[in-house]
Amino acid sequence: MKTRFYAVYLMLTLFLVSSCGSLRAPVFDQYSYQKGTELKVDAINLMDKATMSYDSQQAAIDNFDSELAKMLEYQKNRENNTISYAMWKMIANPDKNFIAGFLKRWKDKGTLSSFFINEAKGQVTEALDLILQYEGKKDPAAENKLKAILGL
Amino acid sequence: MDFKDLLKELKGNLLSLMGSKFDDLKEESKKDVQDFLKASKEKLERWTTLLAEGNITLDDYKWLIESQKDLVVLKGLYAAGVSKIKLGHLKNSILDTVIKTAIGFVKPKEDDNNTETA
Question: A27 by DSSP, 3-state: which?
Answer without folding.
Answer: strand
